[in-house]
Structures are given as C-alpha cells and as structure tokens.
Write a structure and sequence with these properties.
Distance between the termini: 91 Å
Largest sheet: 3 strands, antiparallel
Oligomer: single chain
Strand order of the largest sheet: 1-3-2
Helix content: 55-70%
Length: about 170
C-alpha cells in the first residue's frame, strides 16, 4: 500500500489517522477507540503499517460523531445502529443477487425488522430526552414559584416596614 504522500492511482484520497481525525473533529485516540470497539476499520494500511482512511471512513466517523455528540447516543447504541445499517446493505445486495421471490420476501422482511429495531432505538432515545425535558421544565416551574413566593413575602415586608432613608440622605418631596 502507499503512504498518504503518494496518492494511489484512481484518485482515492487516503489519510493517516491524525489527518482523518482532524478532518472530522475527533482525536486520533477516539478513532483508535472506535476501532477497538468494532465501530470502525481503516480502509487500508501503508507499508509503514499506518492506518489509512478513505472518504467512506470519514463519512462513518462523522456519522458516529454526530450520533455521539449531537444525539447523545452511547457507543453501544451506535454499534447497534451501525450493525443494522450494515445488515440492510447486505440485504440490499442479496436481494439484487437473486430472482427467487421467496428469498426476496425473506430478505425484505429482515430489512423491515432492521428498520423496526432502529426505529425502536430512536424512540427510546426520544422518550428519554422527553423525560429529561419534562424534568427540567418542572424544576424551572418550581424555581419560578419560589421566586414569586419570595417576591410576595418581600412585598408584604415592605408594606409592614417601609424602608427608612439612610442617615444623612435626604429625599425630595
């Protein structure tokens, strides 16, 4: 394999781990960890055994980062979502490789089951987030009620004990 400085023929751009990580806003350590967890595999290795990443690897890293950072998914949830995506790609290829209607129906049913698992994972996340929003809103409302109580008590005290001017300070009538 070639190093990133020598571009392979065919216009495929391969990046070392530091370059790939920087391009998607991750650290090289995160990328290595994703590999250890089975979420990633580099496209190739250089003669010096450097990991090399192509555009599809960068897309996958962006997808993982988005699920983790933007949507708050755990790595286990991300792994399940990626497994379902890979399974759907296999079903798609197998579907087009056969003309047998029974096999096509079986493949489509497996694909539907994969979509259902993914939708359930997303619904679970939505429900957890909705519960967090509800909890935050309830705490906000309790704080507003406490403010109103303190303001009302302060107003009662102000009427009972009007503020006295400080010594040496005159007020204009």
């Amino acid at each position: 394999m070639t190093d990133t400085k020598e571009r392979p023929t065919g216009g495929v751009r391969l990046l070392k781990i530091q370059e790939a990580a920087a391009e998607v806003g991750l650290t090289a350590r995160s990328v290595r960890y994703y590999e250890e967890m089975g979420l990633m595999r580099p496209a190739a290795r250089s003669e010096g055994d450097y990991r090399l990443y192509d555009e599809s690897d960068l897309e996958r890293l962006r997808f993982i980062k988005g699920l983790r950072d933007d949507a708050g998914f755990s790595l286990a949830e991300i792994s399940r979502l990626l497994e379902d995506e890979e399974a759907r790609e296999r079903y798609h290829a197998a579907y087009h490789a056969t003309a047998d209607p029974v096999e096509r129906i079986r493949l489509l049913r497996e694909r539907v089951a994969s979509f259902e698992r993914q939708a359930q994972t997303l619904r679970t996340k939505i429900n957890r987030l909705a519960a967090m929003v509800d909890d935050t809103e309830a705490r906000r409302l309790r704080s507003l009620a406490r403010i109103a109580e303190i303001e009302a008590a302060s107003a009662d005290l102000e009427h009972a004990y009007p503020a006295q001017p400080e010594p040496g300070v005159t007020t204009n009538p």
